Amino acid sequence: MNETERNWYAVYTKPKSEKKLNQSLQTKKIQTFLPLLSQKKKWSDRIKIVEEPIFKSYLFVKINFKEESLEVLKDKNAMQFVFFNGKPSTISENDISLIEIFLNEYPEKIKIEELNKLQKGNEVEIQSGPFKGKKAIVEKVKNAYQVILNIPLLNRVIRLEVAKEVLGF
After folding, report:
1. Strand 90-91 vs strand 7-13: parallel, antiparallel, or unpaired?
2. Is 167 helix (H, G, I), strand (E, B) or coil?
3. By the 8 A CB rule, do 162 and 147 touch?
4. Which of 3, 115, 119, 124 has its Cβ near the most Cβ atoms within 10 Å?
5. Residue 158: which residues within 8 A CB-CB, separation 6 or more?
6. 3 state SS for 77-129
7. Among 169, 158, 164, which Cα is nearest to 136's?
């Protein structure tokens, strides 16, 4: 196959299946790129360093779309390709290289945050402190460290300012 016919594409995966799809496609000799970042995860009994995908539910593949896309989608962990204006969206070699450079040169500067969860009106669950396990509504993201929450309680709303860490961010 002519190398110029191959482009990078983003594949949307089943939740938490990026690593499985990556491994499966590599065994089929399909070129993949799964940017991972080491993160500290805290459980109630321990802290562990785990590798998390930077782009949750996405895997990059370099393929000839016409010839290999169906092979990718046959995998049970692949959902669909990312499309833009009705066409499969290609990702430039330069963009892939930039991600690799950031991962290799500046991994400590990369922070994974699901910003969409910290938007006004979204429901979150408090992960630590006296309100652990309680659901709250984001009222305002005050700054890089603080969030103002509304906690429904006894037909009232309690407004509470907490550190993002309390929410697991």
Report:
1. antiparallel
2. helix
3. yes
4. 124
5. 150, 151
6. CEEEECEECCEECEECHHHHHHHHHHHHHCHHHCCCCCHHHHCCCCEEECCCC
7. 158
Cβ(103)–Cβ(35) under 8 Å? yes
Amino acid (one-letter) located at 74: K
Element (H, E) at 70: helix 65-73
The model carries a pTM of 0.63
Contact 126, 167 (CB under 8 A): yes
User: Which of the four pLDDT bands, split at 50, 70 and 90, describes residue 50?
Assistant: confident
Tokens of 109: 């500067």
Q: How confident is the model at residue 1 (pLDDT cuts 50, 70, 90)?
A: very low
Angle at 127 between CA 14 and CA 165, to 5 degrees: 95
